[in-house]
Amino acid sequence: MPVLQNIMENVLLGLDQLLQFNVLLALVIGSIGGIILGAIPGVGPAVGIAILLPITFSMEPLVGLTLLLGIYAASMYSGAIPSILINTPGTAVAVLATYDGYPMTQRGEGRRALTMAYTSSFFGGVFSVLVLMVLALPLANFARRFGSAEFAMAALFAMIVVIFAHRKKAVAAAMTLALGLFFASMGIEFAFTTQRYTFGQLWLFNGIPLIPMVLGLFAMSQGLTLLIDDHQESTLPKLTGSLWDGVKEAFSYPRVLLMSSSFGVFMGILPGVGEFMAQFFSYSSAQRMSKTPELFGNGAPEGLIASESADNAVPAAALIPLLALGIPGEALTAMMLSVFYVHNVVPGPLLFETRPEFVMGLFLSMLFTNFVIMGFMLVSTKWLVKITIINPKFIGVVVLTLSLIGTYTSNYSLTDPLIALFFAFLGYILNRLDIPSVPIVLGLVLGPIFEARVRQALGGAGGDITVFFTRPISLGLIVFMILTIAVFLWSARQQEKSNIPV
User: What percent of the chain has pLDDT over 70?
Assistant: First the structure.
């Protein structure tokens, strides 16, 4: 009974936080803004979060995070709109929605496909938030056993998984992660106040700031892509059929919904894995379990349900390692980590004890966000589809302009826009070469965490490096890392053998 009473008290505290006007306003604005960003091909959540990140620093932490999470979750929903209607993914992870969504549109079932995608996304989003509410506190309680050695190994494990999550691009991901770690090492090293890679430039004494890097790599590089690339004009198909057919049909596949949402949660918790891997495994599993696997890729409802429920289960799950351990697993949660730090809110095990009302308010805001998104998309579909044919070059100009303004106003320094421009061109080149840029941001965020924790662990142990091997949890993480590396190398070797012509 005391435990249940404590939970109810925290829920009431969270509701009190959620029902504040500024939080509700951020929830609605973030949800609608994310829907619009996701529906525009080539934009996506990273652009919106990067542009709004400097603005959220002046807000209360719950307000700012609610705004950013609304954009993150909503863009996952609406990214399916151009995928289904014009065979052009709205976001990078909406590719699989084209496999079965677009063939349904060609058969005159575009409205059915859209509402089916919305419903699947809604189920995955709500399911993952409920799992977050269940798992985050036990994981945080377990994390209380962590010392500096354990946190250092957890950060190292996150970096290793980020590399291997890129599969065939693992070598390129390792190089860009190393580049991010190099950027993280620049500036004044505070333990001994020594300069590292500052080259005598005063503006480098504080290191590479996160906001200009994020705005350059994600927002401005995407703006350059939209401006430079040629885009074919698209015509929207006529939407016919009942609005509720797809809603009812999605729930007629409960096993696919539950399995795919579970994949999304599991992949979201793992650092660096993200939505595409969750979609891939969910889609493949749904095809294997289907009675009609030959329909996949030709308008199979199960394929669309699997891909959409999986990728929308990831955003809430990605917050689990961030809230419980203070370690971000991917670029978007790494951006959100800066919102915590600006307001002196330290994510980790103690957050659940010192700020239960904030944590529960965040959980409830994510839960209600899914209802707002679902309701808005159902009543506004006929207008939302028109967003997909906005001229990309116009969007590119808007993105570049807002990014430069946001970069300057974040610190009112002329060097920040120059840094952002450097990373914009770097991001554009990396995208052209099909080299992942996300590891750079994770390297910039995880590098200082790893360095500080290693220094603390060695300092407490008198410089004895065996401290990482004598503590059970730290040793367990090291063993897990070795197994992860071994499995990746073995699978890569098997794939190489299978590709050798006989």
Answer: 90
CA-based nearest residue to 362, from 5, 27, 6, 21: 27
Residue showing tokens 């009974």: 1
Residue in the block written with tokens 């990746």: 488
User: What sign does the dihedral 298-260-67-51 (CA atoms) show?
Assistant: negative
* Cβ contacts of 342 within 8 Å, gap of 6 or more: 57
How do residues 329-339 score in pLDDT, each as one tens digit?
A: 677 788 888 88
Segment (H or E) for 187: strand 187-189
Which pLDDT score, from 0 to 100, does residue 502 have?
Answer: 36
Which residue bears the tokens 């399911």?
127
Q: Provide the greatest CA pair distance for the chain.
A: 72
Per-residue pLDDT tens digits for 123-145: 998 999 888 888 877 877 787 78
Q: Domain ranges in the chain?
A: 2-499
Chain segment 53-89, per-residue pLDDT in tens: 888 888 888 898 899 888 988 888 888 888 888 777 6
- Cβ contacts of residue 380 below 8 Å, gap of 6+? none
DSSP state, residue 194: E
> In the Cβ-directed half-sphere of 268, how many Cα atoms lie within 13 Å?
32
SS3 353: helix
